[in-house]
Amino acid sequence: MVRGRAPTGVMEFDAMLNGGFMKGDCILVTGAAGTGKTNLALQFLYNGVTKYGEHAVYVTFEQMPDQIYRDAKTLGMNLEKLEEENRLKVVATSPDVLVQNPDMITDFSSERAERIVIDSISYFELSRKDSVRDEIYALIRYLKTKGATSMLLHEAQTTDGLHGFGPYEHGLSFLADTVVVLKYVEIESAIRRAVAILKMRGSDHEKTLRELKITPKGIEVGGSFDQWEGVLSGAPHKSFAIRMSKAFGGI
Question: What is the pTM of this model?
Answer without folding.
Answer: 0.86
